[in-house]
Specification:
The chain is α+β, with helices and mostly antiparallel strands. Helix content is about 15%, strand content about 35%. It is globular and about 80 Å long.
């Protein structure tokens, strides 16, 4: 794609025979790095790329691609190695060693007091650790663009919230600053155990009212991050049950709870919860007591844009496609990667047959990457499309404090000047 774009930009400079509209249509479907190179190569293209109309075309092109993965969008992860240390950027793959991204702007007096809690589309949500009696502060930033907006939450009636859903949006005429430069736009939802939500809009600069959604029903999200597909946020939730008489094993049931978040109004439940059948759980690896529960399960989106449940088994990592409606059923189990083959490609601290415990930490919707920890192999990044892995560390981190970062084109375009 990059070579074709370079040839097109040369033709524009040499002979204006190719309509600019055609070139822009091609650029709108390119990866973020190619778009930035085009903006740097030609003042004419830069002027068009900085135009909000082009941003809308980029957004439409992205929606048209559906759930297709682009592994190049995963730039790296922000990771805290020890308590009290700032989060540092670790590039993925390590060959991008020259790439450095600050999580907080240079000169911030308290960089250690913020921690990343969510990321999507090139933006990161940072949360200041709450001081006793003090307000909670949220900061939404674009590390690539080097700009941020600081959001101080007004007093909330929510005593506790455990999930942040970041929804980067298209640019509009209200997103310009007093200096004439355009800001990225977004909405941010905070969710309390799928019972109450509140939404902040960067366009209005205010929080909406607290909304009751009543989606918990005794189930708790397995992890705070949600998978967002076509305007619907999905959480994998778990409910603890009293084990049957005579059994010493803990007994859980799981379901997928979904909220529609693509409207400017209050989030609403997107249909009934989807129960996870026992056939999907039968092969999963039962963790020892020292390992956090449910890390063998991870909700993901497939390359075809469907919702999927990733399961870490003893011999493999497999995926089940989640039903998309009442008339649909769970898809057949499909092996994503053989665990032994995966571990043969990385350095191990122990013998291969001992490295059985897999903790799945995070999924990237744009790149199709899964960050996981394997006892004896450390921190790995698994490509769901190819089954390939990248080893980031040979050592485990308990807990793994990290926030993977995927590039997003719209926040980057907002920082491009037409000058």
């Amino acid at each position: 794609m990059g070579n074709h774009i370079a040839k097109l930009t040369r033709r524009i400079r040499e002979t204006p025979t190719l309509p600019v509209e055609i070139v822009l249509t091609i650029i709108a479907r390119a990866d973020p790095v190619t778009v930035v190179r085009c903006a740097a190569a030609s003042k004419l293209l830069r002027r068009h790329i900085a135009d909000p109309a082009f941003h809308a075309e980029v957004g439409a092109a992205g929606r048209g691609r559906g759930g297709a993965y682009d592994p190049s969008l995963l730039l790296g992860i922000f990771q805290q190695h020890r308590d009290g240390e700032p989060y540092r950027f670790v590039p993925v793959p390590p060959s991008r060693a020259r790439l450095t991204l600050p999580l907080m702007p240079a000169g911030d007096a308290l960089p250690n007091s913020f921690e990343p809690v969510a990321s999507r589309g090139g933006l990161v949500v940072l949360r200041r650790r709450q001081r006793v009696g003090g307000p909670v502060e949220l900061c939404v930033c674009s590390p690539v663009a080097g700009r941020r907006s600081l959001i101080i939450l007004p007093p909330l009636s929510l005593d506790y919230y455990d999930s942040h859903v970041l929804l980067p949006g298209d640019e509009d005429d209200d997103s310009s600053s007093s200096t004439g430069r355009r800001h990225f736009s977004f909405r941010l939802l905070v969710v309390e155990v799928l019972c109450q939500t509140q939404t902040f809009s960067s366009r209005t600069g205010a929080w909406g009212p607290v909304t009751e959604v009543a989606g918990g029903d005794g189930y708790w999200p397995v992890r705070p991050t949600a998978v967002v597909l076509r305007g619907v946020a999905h959480w994998l939730c778990r409910r603890d049950h009293v084990p049957p008489r005579g059994s010493s094993e803990e007994f859980f049931t799981y379901r997928v709870v979904s909220l529609r978040v693509d409207t400017t109004g209050a989030p609403q439940l997107a249909g009934a919860a989807i129960e996870v059948p026992q056939c999907c759980l039968r092969r999963r690896y039962r963790y020892p007591a020292a390992v956090p529960r449910s890390k063998e399960l991870l909700l993901v989106s497939t390359a075809e844009g469907r919702l999927g449940l990733l399961v870490a088994e003893i011999m493999a990592i497999s995926i089940w496609v989640v039903p998309s409606g009442e008339d649909d059923s769970w898809g057949a189990r499909r092996v994503v990667v053989d665990k032994a083959a995966m571990l043969r490609s990385v350095e191990l601290r122990w013998e291969l047959h001992i490295c059985v415990t897999v903790e799945m930490e995070w999924f990237g919707e744009a790149s199709g990457a899964v960050v996981l920890q394997v006892h004896g192999a450390g921190v790995l990044v698994l490509d769901l499309r190819t089954g390939g892995v990248v080893q980031l560390s040979l050592h485990l981190h308990k807990p793994l404090r990290c926030c993977p970062y995927e590039a997003g084109l719209l926040p980057l375009l907002a920082s491009i000047s037409s000058a």
